[in-house]
Design a protein that fits this description.
This protein has about 100 residues and is mainly alpha-helical. It has one domain. It is about 55% helix and about 5% strand. It contains 3 helices and 2 strands. The chain has a two-stranded antiparallel sheet. A hairpin with a 5-residue loop joins strand 1 and strand 2. It is extended. It starts with 9 loop residues before the first helix and ends with a helix. The structure holds zinc ion. The site of zinc ion (ZN) has 6 residues, from loops.
């Protein structure tokens, strides 16, 4: 049996397309023809153009956006949350280490 793919609903894909453009570092880009993305994955997610998009700030905004939409939180919340917690743990560890030194 084929693995079920979590597909992004079309409405949010449109939002993602708008969001991508806010994180463009260059105005003219002939890699993505100024669209800001190179294509769409089978999960219906955009592939941001590595040439002209600040993918870190884009991902941060996307994460914040997902949190505000229950439907999206359900689809992706868990995986995003895990990453966040991991980071927090590492920070805590560093703090503790400092205290011991
Ligand atoms: Zn580009």
């Amino acid at each position: 049996m084929k693995k079920e793919i979590k597909r992004l609903p079309e409405t949010y894909l449109q939002e993602a397309k708008k969001m991508v453009l806010k994180h463009k570092k260059k105005k003219k880009c002939n890699k993505c023809f100024d669209r800001g993305y190179l294509g769409i994955t089978e999960e219906n997610m955009l592939i941001p153009c590595t040439h002209c998009i600040d993918s870190k700030s884009l991902f941060d905004e996307w994460k914040a956006y997902v949190k505000t939409i229950p439907e999206l939180s359900e689809l992706y919340g868990d995986s995003l949350e895990e990453k966040e917690e991991e980071k927090e743990e590492k920070k805590e560890f560093k703090k503790e280490k400092k205290n011991w030194e």
